[in-house]
Design goal:
Number of helices: 13
Number of strands: 11
Oligomer: single chain
Shape: elongated
Structural class: alpha/beta
Order of helices and strands: EEHEHEEEHHHHEHHHEHHHEEHE
Number of domains: 1
């Protein structure tokens, strides 16, 4: 992390308020500021009326802090970032990583180590770290299932996880259920099994609902996990897990007769792991103790240099 150079802003793309000077810095420098100091939506259920997806700030290219706002844009391959300061009182306040409420709950002297551990390994707590991508698939599945069970259970200590962690988890889902994301045959067979259930057992509306729930649990190509804010109102009824379990098991058992080495025979041989992965819901619900590290090595802002100047004049 370092300042690469100073240069006059004479390219005509930016009208600065600081004498036409921009500071060229590594994008990772801004990421190391954004991750611990920016603010995110309040995860308490009363903070929003209905369940909603947490905004992807990488795509929005704008973040807020308790002391101002930072926005950036790319023009002809160059990224320009502009900081809009808050009130003088806000600027003068102490800057607490992850805020007073959560940041103060880290054990003394562990906050920076926790931050860097999450950056390098996806999660600040080793109990939530996924297996290496080069580990045997059985080990990756085992860690995947245990991590999501622990997330659902919750905890008292702050936990930092990254979007890179979610992407690795999504790769496991795609690998196990869709042969890397391109094979829809297992999913299609479950849908056919739903259609085959007599309407006296499963009304049409229920079939539609179960199909929707099944689709959520399968990941194809670019499907991934998402962070969600819980909301204060219930938006749907309970999921009929009985049908998901029963039909997926029946389909997997039907693959027993497929030739050894084929995709469907592989699904049958690992059917218990397959069902465990299928059970994992695609939404990670935000809690006070869960902190999201969005701007990691995988994001575009991190990868290049950034020209940091004053806000663009209206």
């Amino acid at each position: 992390m370092q300042v690469a150079s100073w240069r006059p802003s004479i390219d005509g793309y930016i009208n600065t308020q600081n004498g036409g000077v921009e500071m060229e810095i590594d994008g990772s420098v801004l990421c190391h500021i954004i991750n611990p100091y920016s603010t995110t939506p309040d995860p308490d259920p009363w903070a929003c009326q209905e369940e909603e997806e947490m905004p992807n700030r990488r795509e929005a290219k704008q973040v807020t802090f308790p002391f101002g706002e930072l926005a950036w844009s790319t023009v002809e391959g160059k990224t320009h970032a502009h900081f809009k300061p808050g009130l003088e009182k806000e600027l003068a306040n102490a800057k607490v990583p992850f805020g007073d409420e959560v940041g103060s709950k880290f054990e003394p002297g562990t906050l920076i180590a926790s931050y860097l551990t999450a950056l390098n390994h996806g999660a600040s707590d080793p109990n939530f770290q996924l297996a290496s991508p080069t580990a045997p698939i059985s080990e990756r599945i085992d860690r995947f299932v245990k991590c999501f069970m622990a997330l659902a259970k919750g905890g008292r200590e702050p936990l930092i996880i990254s979007r890179d962690w979610l992407e690795e988890a999504a790769r496991i889902k795609r690998r196990v259920l869709a042969e890397g994301g391109s094979n829809r045959s297992f999913y299609d067979d479950i849908i056919d099994a739903i259609d085959a259930v007599d309407k006296s057992e499963m009304p049409r509306d229920t079939k539609g609902f179960i199909k929707h729930e099944i689709r959520l649990r399968f990941f194809f190509e670019k499907d991934s996990f998402h962070f969600y804010l819980d909301g204060g109102t219930e938006t749907s009824g309970p999921v009929p897990f009985y049908w998901i379990e029963r039909l997926s098991k029946e389909v997997l058992e039907s693959y027993k007769s497929h030739p050894a080495g084929t995709w469907k025979r592989t699904l049958y041989e690992s059917r218990h792991d397959v069902q465990s992965v299928l059970r994992v819901y695609p939404c990670v619900y935000m809690k006070k103790w869960l902190l999201v590290q969005e701007f990691t090595r995988g994001c575009e802002l991190w990868k290049g240099n950034v020209l940091l100047g004053a806000p663009v004049l209206a």
